[in-house]
Design goal:
This protein has six helices and five strands; from the N terminus they run E-E-H-E-H-H-E-E-H-H-H. With 189 residues, it is α/β, with parallel strands linked by helices. Strand 1 and strand 2 form a beta hairpin.
Length: 189
């Protein structure tokens, strides 16, 4: 019983960091499944129901911008992964973590695997769930604040997103502990 866990949205200026944990059924295989960043939005959305139906169990959690600002993005990412593991209906014997930082979860052995989402099916599955759930959330809050175009940029620091922050200011969904606008450089003449 091995769980894979990953997060999405760590580098965004707005929205939650979303974490997922997945235990796949023994023998699960899918030739399309890979690190969510390597897949098109269409392929991720195609894979999501396949993963949900094929998984032994899974959990997905959003950690709010306010909490990210309070405990920092690394701790919020790890907390999200822990909360996603909490949702699993089967207790894993081992946890495979994408990346190089994690805090022990209960008494369960874990391994941090850099670029694990491209190497292990269970981490790739968690990567796809985290990304698709977060994208859906960003499209939902886009309706509330369409001027930031979150349905397209998903809260990432695009030029368009930064221009909107400059023009309209920040919302309750922005991470105020992040550098939302690049500092203006001035030359003393």
């Amino acid at each position: 019983m091995e769980a894979g866990t990953d997060e999405a949205g760590r580098g965004c200026l707005a929205g939650p960091v979303t974490a997922a944990a997945v235990i796949l059924k023994e023998g699960f295989s899918n030739t399309l499944l890979n690190d969510s960043k390597q897949l098109s939005e269409q392929k991720r959305n195609l894979l999501r129901p396949i993963i949900e139906e094929s998984a032994l169990c899974y959990g997905v959690v959003h950690v709010s911008p306010a909490e990210i600002d309070e405990i920092n993005i690394l701790n919020a990412s790890i907390k999200g992964m822990h909360l996603a593991i909490d949702q699993l209906t089967t207790i894993p014997e081992f946890i495979s973590v994408d990346g190089n930082k994690f805090k022990p979860y209960k008494e369960i052995t874990h391994a941090c695997i850099i670029k694990g989402d491209g190497r292990y099916m269970n981490i790739a599955a968690a990567s796809v769930l985290a990304k698709t759930y977060r994208d859906a959330y960003m499209e939902q809050i886009h309706e509330e604040y369409p001027m930031y175009n979150w349905k397209k940029n998903k809260g990432y620091p695009t030029k368009e997103h930064r221009e909107a922050i400059k023009k309209y200011g920040v919302t309750k969904y922005h991470r105020t502990s992040f550098k939302l606008l690049p500092e203006q450089l001035k030359l003393a003449l």
